[in-house]
Queue: 4 jobs
Job 1
Amino acid sequence: MNDPRNAPCTLEVALGERSYPIHIGPGLLGDPRWLAPHLAGRQVMVVTNETVAPLYLERLRQGLAADLEVRELVLPDGETTKTLASVERIWDALLAAGFNRRCTLIALGGGVIGDMVGFAAACYQRGVAFVQVPTTLLAQVDSSVGGKTGVNHPRGKNMIGAFWQPRAVLVDTDTLATLPPRELSAGLAEVIKYGLIRDAGFLAWLEAEMEALRGLDAFAVAQAIERSCALKAEIVAEDETEQGVRALLNLGHTFGHAIEAHQGYGNWLHGEAVGAGMLMAAELSCRLGWLGAEEVARIREIIEAAGLPLTAPADMGVDDFLAIMRLDKKNLDSRLRLILLRTLGEACIHDATPTETLIDLLENFPRR
Amino acid sequence: MNDPRNAPCTLEVALGERSYPIHIGPGLLGDPRWLAPHLAGRQVMVVTNETVAPLYLERLRQGLAADLEVRELVLPDGETTKTLASVERIWDALLAAGFNRRCTLIALGGGVIGDMVGFAAACYQRGVAFVQVPTTLLAQVDSSVGGKTGVNHPRGKNMIGAFWQPRAVLVDTDTLATLPPRELSAGLAEVIKYGLIRDAGFLAWLEAEMEALRGLDAFAVAQAIERSCALKAEIVAEDETEQGVRALLNLGHTFGHAIEAHQGYGNWLHGEAVGAGMLMAAELSCRLGWLGAEEVARIREIIEAAGLPLTAPADMGVDDFLAIMRLDKKNLDSRLRLILLRTLGEACIHDATPTETLIDLLENFPRR
């Protein structure tokens, strides 16, 4: 890996003519060299939220040349705002500004901003350019890469959306300095996920470095982001629209989405729900005879070490889980599809879990 | 050309792995052979409107196998319903039915239904299959082919949408029997457009056959649809996302969209506005020295023979046109781009029309 203390590292998401770079390093935000090559024309709209705007909007502005026509839109913060109504606000602002097909949207914020701005770009005049500038660990390692965009629907998470790739992803690692610890832990859930599904060596490295990561050690954090992005870029390049291997990135997400939906979006952070969900997937993989008790214990320990929950919500019964999980996007023709672990570092798509095994897991998984 | 009195004709839109057939002929609707190969799975939702449902929904139902899970959604009719709110109704219905990624939407109706259902399919769970079953001439020759989907915004037509290709287009020519004459004329505007932009021989054929077409002569109508679809398929295959040649299909549309937007969607039919708009584009091409007066006269005559308006709305001033045209999707970085005619059968994209020439046209074009 590059030493991020010296120079930014650049990875590529290889998607033919839709390929794009991920730049990772400190100090990218205010430096015009990183944004300029990815703007489609002179019209630029920066979309961010009320939490991020006071922290980083001015710095981003400094990274935009003076001759651009720049507009800014500041939306409310939080998963509950990830709605079609918010995306309509972006479209209204673009049309009010008279922006054309050659405009560029910049998503400055976490996963919610990135998903909404990407979806707004996908559908504005049938598709315009956008750049991801993720400011949370979760967005930096996962949601900003790979072109999944969209919004929630009262009946399910990310039910409305599009595959639409950004022109570039700029990960300014300096932005993590202002991230609340709870959000940092949520991001670490997705980092752990990459180790679990595809890279046992990375998982072992994470076990060793978890304290450094939670302490925001710059070198450890940059390495974790780079490795996560590299794994994500590999998977997306193999399977852009989730016909196969990309579904593995959803380890823990089917259980996690059910928790998020049941508890009301935003009460559990996405990463927290994924953390508990990965442990549920691990326990189920153990019941199917794939993981040993010792491996499940390792998974429990690293999830705990990352500061993530090890329990499901106390008020969530078996039927609550099943009802929401049956609506999951991965399901095909009414079979429940789950991402499970064959072993540490190897995930699989499984649509033949016996219902009684699943119910047994859901009944016995600890609540709090 | 095939003789459509014998067997349906099939054309292909050649887009690599997104290629699909256009089947054209009588009696396709109730015949299961045409729909079945294009369904992604067992879940099927037919979306139509209140005008078309009593005429053709039952016939379409007969074309769907008994073991499918079929839902139906009947929306109100008209261009004013081409809104995001209508598309949300489709998404709500899909989610209420628990439909997954392997579902198929069927658009049964005219251009409004086709555009909305296509957009709903493009964004439901980030993209599901859909089939176009156009029942108006305009949808059969133009809007159902090529994957342009979307809805109107109060500030502009088709401003929100996506490129999303159908799995197939089924043109049952029997459905034209119930089409009001005004709608038939509107469809003929797009048919004439193909002759004007790309096929002078087809234009001459249309001049000769216009009476037969307006009288719904089955052979003439089928030939006109086939030739129009073949020309459209060629152009779309060359330029799926309108980076170049596909823009030529917008002949008359920049003026036409301005008329539609100013008059309120639905008061002028889209094809009527395009008819007047093509004449405006022809007059402007004449002012630029490309068309002679005799060629403009031929265009005026065929537009009139098709039963289309030759005048702009009396209450639309020069500024009304300019204000709306400046928001057109084809414009890039604030230059007005127009599709004009170099000669009969050859269109071009032009972004250097002197403003005074355009204003002179807009001042002098007849109103009523």
Job 2
Amino acid sequence: MTTEVASCAKKSRGRPKVFDRDVALDKAMTLFWQHGYEATSLADLVEATGAKAPTLYAEFVNKEGLFRAVLDRYISRFADKHEAQLFCEEKSVEDALRDYFSAVATCFTSKDTPAGCFMINTSATLAASSKEIAHTIKSRHAMQEKTLCEFLTQRQARGEIPADKCIGELAQFLSCILQGMSISAREGASLETLLQITDTTLRLWPQMLKI
Amino acid sequence: MTTEVASCAKKSRGRPKVFDRDVALDKAMTLFWQHGYEATSLADLVEATGAKAPTLYAEFVNKEGLFRAVLDRYISRFADKHEAQLFCEEKSVEDALRDYFSAVATCFTSKDTPAGCFMINTSATLAASSKEIAHTIKSRHAMQEKTLCEFLTQRQARGEIPADKCIGELAQFLSCILQGMSISAREGASLETLLQITDTTLRLWPQMLKI
């Protein structure tokens, strides 16, 4: 990241440093992901992004505005790509789920980003004063279960899941495992461990459809 | 809790207010559970416990000392009781696991304590400066998986689990589900939802032993 700022500064030699919104958002994302929303101060964000405080205020109004922009960027950089693994009609249900779980596991354990799930980490310890942000993160996080519901409903309509199977319960169970994987990752579990959990889940899948 | 302090004050009328260590620890526990270790300041702890700062310092030295005492109390008030559900030789493996999961689910969703797991919540956003506390919480939290391992190993020795089944993998998977339940609870899942997840897990149990 330092390199990007440096090269950006070089390009604009003699002119005011160009504010790179995406670079700033990525640096802010790392801070929020690591320390949570509450514990990340605007001063920390100013320091990490290398932007001047007035620039950040002009662009995002306040910490909440910056966080919302970071959340959008997180979704386009990560969540959308994970979900694309799921919504691929040529794949079997098992393959789509395995690819989705593997993509999420890879993200949780990637060395390029803090360990665990961005949304679980950021919402960990929200103060009473951050109700709106808490609501935003929770709604977005609940979307993971909704996305799984949507995917499973499509596959049920195609006859790949028994018609009498409760999709809500299935999605809830799969979502619980993904959340558990996030905590395991934060506590140091390796990608290998998470892929083993994924494998167990998929080997149980045929039985999940029967019980 | 206020009532306890009041009645304690009444009893010691005319003498200095008696410091009730357990009441103070329970109040500190609620704060740490709700806001995490990092975001809970000594000033917050002084206010919540109603104790004077010098009393807290004399008793616990510093925030870290107080947290360690809270952790011990959490273990005796909660963790030990949950584990007792597991280590009951008369129960079948399934019954022991169901009772253990149900006890944990009840704790995660109890109105008497903040939602979710004390250890997952407190360790959510630890600063680099809190390495020792991070280590303490992680070691203690890893004990959940170790406890499951110990239980499953005992049952394998009794022939209730196939001899060739990898206990480590089983414990890892069950532990992942418990961690996911903690996050679900923190995001508002009801006891009913967590018991449904428990039920699904137990209905998958025979298959877990086969795959």
Job 3
Amino acid sequence: MRAADIDGFYTDASTLDAEAHLILDYRIECRGDPRVAAAHLCSEQSTAQWRRVDVDEDYRPRFAAKVLDLEVETELSGTSYPLLPPVDGPVSVCRVRIAHPHANFGPRLPNLLSAILGEGPFFAPDVPLIKLLDITFSDSFLAAFEGPQFGLDGLRERWQIHDRPFFFGVIKPNIGLDPEPFTELGYQGWLGGLDIAKDDEMLADPDWSPIARRSALLGAARQRAEQATGEHKVYLANITDEVDRLLPLHDLVVANGANAVMVNALPVGLSAVRMLRKQAQVPLVAHFPLIAASSRLPYFGVHTRVWTKLQRLAGFDVVIMPGFGPRMMTAEDEVLEGIAACVEPMGPIKPCLPVPGGSDSAVTLPGVHEHVGNADFGFVPGRGVFSHPMGPRGGAASLRQAWEAIAAGVPLAEHAAQHPELAAAIGTFG
Amino acid sequence: MRAADIDGFYTDASTLDAEAHLILDYRIECRGDPRVAAAHLCSEQSTAQWRRVDVDEDYRPRFAAKVLDLEVETELSGTSYPLLPPVDGPVSVCRVRIAHPHANFGPRLPNLLSAILGEGPFFAPDVPLIKLLDITFSDSFLAAFEGPQFGLDGLRERWQIHDRPFFFGVIKPNIGLDPEPFTELGYQGWLGGLDIAKDDEMLADPDWSPIARRSALLGAARQRAEQATGEHKVYLANITDEVDRLLPLHDLVVANGANAVMVNALPVGLSAVRMLRKQAQVPLVAHFPLIAASSRLPYFGVHTRVWTKLQRLAGFDVVIMPGFGPRMMTAEDEVLEGIAACVEPMGPIKPCLPVPGGSDSAVTLPGVHEHVGNADFGFVPGRGVFSHPMGPRGGAASLRQAWEAIAAGVPLAEHAAQHPELAAAIGTFG
């Protein structure tokens, strides 16, 4: 890029038509002049070539992504992560805020992803390392999206769950287990106090547990559990499958009594989820396979907060995400940022329910509640319910007892003295 | 995991039912005993819990992923990339080959991705860094997939392009340019010798260049170019859009005269591509946005070879990928591995056409041809055609002239003496 061309990729917020742009926050490690590198980053994600040969024209004023803010944080003698082919010499670590005109692609998730995470950002000259840290949408862009159909408030109303977390349980074992005993595990979990018994994200529609049969059994068991407990109960069926089966499977499992469906968001694709959302009769729940492959490293890829916002935009009512504690390899701040991304204001798009998960049990509930700071979350043990020594009914009961203790401001150990399921959870998982 | 449980996640190739398994090659950096870490990696991606409480059963023999081979390459004092939260202490760098029973999920791309790149591999205890290096399918798994409809040989036959590379050109400028002048650029490129004039991967269906109008203009221009040149010409329309618009857009652009369609594979989702493949009347071309976010780092994420194999499996006839040279930040070996992944034997799945691209022009053609080692590739300049000082007709002509030189074993510079377009390309891009 010639020196005279660089200014065309800079603007300031005071003159920007904010409604016409998305705001993108990237962290980059760049070679050479950061001002040039940031201009490349804008050019490559928008008007890489902004005029025809021998024509006096310039598409940048209306169509170029433009730098709003560029801050050099530090200089390093080389990239934070060694690369192949090697990148030699010093780099500048920068935060760059870019305004991208969304009319370049319109309110379409695949085209949005192609612009903000495509060849532009990841192959901009002299920008070998880049991470998209955040995205902020304008209301005019959001207006074209459906977002969650029910959202956090809608789920509370629909399932009559108030002033406490939503108690999910991942039925285990699942890979290999026949539908009949699998259903019995879920049923016992509901009786013990689970709100939502769910399929594992890897259990979909295999020959040895066809979803038609599994959902029929669990749909019927759910209704029995509702009669037995007088509470709303949810069977969350995993309909993750090829895209052309999403709608038929949704219809099938709902007819069979499933009253929420789970989709592994990135493996299926966010746009297919948006398609499903337009037809869905029940809440949509996201699971997180594939996300870590682009999000784990602090200085490369995509921040999980961005993936969470995009899942909410695609229409998920619930977003399951890696939660607190060392098991899920996610920094506490990042978990909190993901939770915030579910519930913070987002124009006309409803809040969704965050479910930070990972090796939970009654024992971890106080800590998760304390981290979140309120009861607007889902709690999703697997083993904590289904490997409980008193079985899933005892495991589920231990969750409710732990919540009673929290709500009463009583230590778990004290409450456990009168509650053997909680005592057993502490003994096993504590 | 208890010591006695580990053996259930190991097997050897001599006793394995090879047809029933996929083979996964991971590089991991793990803490503690590598044998335990590799068992966790298998457990988490398959039978994480393999028995019910108080039931004497074991789902591992049939359903567990199992280590076939584990090789400790070296020990490091810490992970290659610092992580948050920090991973303290020494790690072992290992290659681990795993056999995964594909009946756990069946021939479904989203479920395959969920198993091999999901919570299992990326959240296995004591495995903070992992990269999926390769995947090998058994014929029994592949038999359920459609793969490319035309494939490399079918494209040569359909478009009568023999004994030379396929010459693509990315029409530029594109972001902001009206369909009429955009079409004229493509038309001139065809006259000059392009086989395929293509939309940029960021140009889809915006208000300022509706794909209905653009494809009608280019479809008509393509037919005029065929009449003028006596050659087959291809307009490659980018139908990347929300999933529920893929089939309608395919039908629209084909009716308008587009004779190939491009889809940004990961932004749209591989499964949606498979859905499109079942209905498509024309060749499908993949573009690579989003892939680098999980593939650039040598020791984390997913190797591009895996993404290429999966794109071929989803049914793409052509896979555009980052090519040779420093501009595309991809090691030469990795480009060659991606090309091999397009054409190597893959059971009943046809070979597809590899298109290694990035800042190409007539000047880079000899190098790309030499690297590939044959003419079974696509060549996809943008500026090399559309910023050529003699315009796109001259730019396209310079590609054909460069190929004449290569085919005749003559240096470009020598051939340029009688070919002003090639001479101008050398002067501009050399």
Job 4
Amino acid sequence: VSKERITETAHYLDTLTKPPGSLGRLEEIAKQLAGITDQGVPQVSPPGILVFAGDHGIVEEGVSAFPQEVTVQMIRNFLDGGAAINVFARQIGASLQVVDVGAAGEIDDDRLVTKKIAAGTANFLKTDAMTEAQMEAAILAGAESANTMIARGIKCLIVGEMGIGNTTAASALVAVLTGCSVEQTVGHGTGISAEKKLHKSRIIEEAIRLRDPNPDNPLNVLKKLGGYEIAAISGAILAAAQAGIPVIMDGFICTSGAMAAVRLNPYIKDYLFAGHVSQEPGHKMALEDIGAAPLLDLGLKLGEGTGAALAFPVLEAAARMRSEMATFDEASVTNK
Amino acid sequence: VSKERITETAHYLDTLTKPPGSLGRLEEIAKQLAGITDQGVPQVSPPGILVFAGDHGIVEEGVSAFPQEVTVQMIRNFLDGGAAINVFARQIGASLQVVDVGAAGEIDDDRLVTKKIAAGTANFLKTDAMTEAQMEAAILAGAESANTMIARGIKCLIVGEMGIGNTTAASALVAVLTGCSVEQTVGHGTGISAEKKLHKSRIIEEAIRLRDPNPDNPLNVLKKLGGYEIAAISGAILAAAQAGIPVIMDGFICTSGAMAAVRLNPYIKDYLFAGHVSQEPGHKMALEDIGAAPLLDLGLKLGEGTGAALAFPVLEAAARMRSEMATFDEASVTNK
């Protein structure tokens, strides 16, 4: 990011008709956007949303509230415009692209971008979730998807996901990468019972013991315990940062993918905004670990990119504040 | 509010393609909107913003960071479209009306609605801020302003204010109405020093002692320590609730006006959304007192209606979620 643009923006914001600092985090966001984009007057519209979909072998172990078939059913719902993320995408004027990087079923629909690496990851209780080559292919698929959207002119990337079982993978990743206990990173997902949650924790603990990932090597952790959509998110974030495009992360799963990207390159965190903090307990740990403060706290636990899309208007407001407000001089207002 | 509509909406939301409750506060908002509007499919667009402006005699005591002339200068800035609230109004497609209920100076501009009660309140360290008749006129001016906007078709009312010295009035009101100490309700306003803040607290304490308001009578408190814009906000809120129109409160000053309205009629609180929690410490007290949880926490301390306007997209998202999302049946998605 450009430190000069940040300093220049900080000075400019104090000339606007408001007490210094009175727009709080909006002022911080405006500075960060200037730094990321290296633009004096950064824009975030139009935004683009990438929803990466993948299935998880670990669902065999009975860790999820919904059956695996829901991943493909929800992909169809996204394509037909009926899911929550579609509603919020229309509200903010975002283009939305669904990318199948690893759904277990086949979808024949030309509105879907198919970059399928495999029909779901392997059950990571029994073997690594992905091979090294598969993981790399998923990261590349994410990066390509982001670059395509960026080439089409989006000014802000919103990342989301769909994948039955993916809070299990994210809990495992976040536990290993942060050093937290599994119990601290496991939540109720889309609605499992207390008993099933305990089972989910035990499965993850056993899997971590058996896979024995190297916590200092994010790619090793991703390969052993991750998911195709999670690896794709890491890749999309790396590509957006490379292009100077701000990224809004969604919830727990997205943030686990972002963590892997940040471990690969710590500067990536300067390009990230945390859309919200979800009900999944591990999300807070992951956000703290990468030093990202959430913009919203609305008790969401849906995924798809919904929390990030809901937070987009805050970034839009920060950008407009920078470009549209009058200065004390322009408005002939007395500065104290 | 309609309890039937709330129950009906609660059932409907569980048929939508998302785990039950996974949209968190958005689901609560959708239910509340259905109750307020008595509509199965409530709408909040287009929104309308009322910015009430008034001056405060108490500024003679040196309680504010900016000189009194800034109230009139900022009214001109609002009319010219250069203030923060103008920027955020354009972003959300809101009509914006500035209403002069008590500015100290004259503004000759036909874009301004003039319902001036007096050229600023009296210095409440020396006498009551307003007479009974003035206070009633200000409440009526607020109600009329809201009713005019509602007649023009707005579906959600955003209330904001401008008035140098008005955090002093709000701190006094909130201290008396909640029973908190003045020290707990006084903050740095638009940017005073620690020393000046102590002075501000002492002035307020002394004024409360001298005016001796009746904490059980909100109109008595408002008359003795309030402001024209604050009384107008109370009136606007009462009118909007009467018309079944949801209201988004802005910050500390708005919430002090809302408190008076809620004390007059406790059912009013069901019509209110707290846009955000500001940096002024008394705001949190006031919100807790009326049982309103803020939608945003962005460290704002500007007023004008900015925090409420920034929160509007959350209400819009809740309304769209209710009206646009597909059900499990419609989308052929397996419900657990």
